[in-house]
Design goal:
The protein has one domain. It is about 20% helix and about 25% strand. The protein has helices at about 5, 40-60, 125-130, 215-220, and strands at about 5-10, 30-35, 65, 70, 80, 105-110, 115-120, 140-145, 150-155, 170-175, 180, 185-190, 195, 200. A five-stranded antiparallel sheet has the order 10-7-9-8-14. A hairpin with a 4-residue loop joins strand 8 (about 140-145) and strand 9. The protein is globular. It starts with a helix and ends in a 7-residue tail after the last helix. Mean pLDDT is about 85; it is low at about 1-35.
Length: about 220
């Protein structure tokens, strides 16, 4: 019997939460499991989540890690629980920081993973940046519960900060000495509908996963103005 047959799901009609993870894809979808009669299914899903994250990191050469969970307070704030000492994570040792029983995952941004990430906290801010810089639509992009993470090739000199642009509100930068939640992280949010991180798009060029950070966009950063 398949995992779907053994499992019951609930769906929030207001948010139309999808209910499963594709078994033949690297995309991770929202689903809230309310009952499972087979403990082996739980172990299977833990293994699948860990392997999916390992594949994600290996494909893009990220230094990643896992942690037990994310809890959300009554105001919607996210609080990671049990994050390891990520400043010690390197390309040479990151796999030792990934545990199969964990449901939350992250990567270390900046030079260690060779990425600079534009963190758009709303769909509107993402659409505004893509409209002005269409080349950023052809790079690894992760859909978050509220917005999008646009992954660019590492650009030194960009400061990790919040609200980094005057022209693009609700946009943060994640570069050196920062971390970022990554697929297939899930956590329980409002209405018992699980929030999730999933791959939104990838570069059409299999040899170039990340777009270069646009220099004109770099000059729009508040730190240079």
């Amino acid at each position: 019997m398949s995992d779907t047959q053994n499992t019951k799901f609930i769906v929030d009609p207001a948010n139309s939460c999808p209910i499963k993870q594709d078994s033949n894809s690297n995309a991770f979808h929202t689903g809230t499991r309310v009952h499972n009669d087979n403990n082996s299914d739980v172990a299977h899903n833990e293994d699948k989540s860990k392997q999916g994250f390992l594949n994600f990191c290996e494909k893009f050469n990220f230094a990643g890690f896992s942690f037990p969970k994310i809890v959300v307070n009554e105001n919607g704030g996210k609080h990671p629980v049990g994050i390891p000492s990520w400043k010690n994570i390197k390309q040479s040792n990151w796999k030792t920081f990934v545990k199969k029983q964990h449901s939350a995952f992250g990567i270390v941004t900046g030079e260690v993973s060779n990425v600079t990430v534009i963190d758009c906290d709303t769909p509107e801010s993402y659409k505004a940046i893509i409209a002005d810089y269409p080349e950023l639509s052809d790079t690894l992009t992760v859909k978050t519960p509220k917005g999008f993470h646009i992954y660019c090739k590492y650009e030194s000199g960009i400061r990790s900060d919040t609200n980094c642009f005057s022209r693009y509100p609700h946009v943060d930068m994640r570069n050196d000495a920062r971390i970022l939640f990554a697929p297939p992280t899930t956590y329980n949010a409002a209405l018992e509908c699980a929030s999730h991180y999933s791959i939104h798009c990838e570069s059409a060029d299999p040899l170039k996963h990340f777009a270069d950070f646009p220099q004109s966009l770099k000059q729009e950063l508040r730190q240079f103005n």
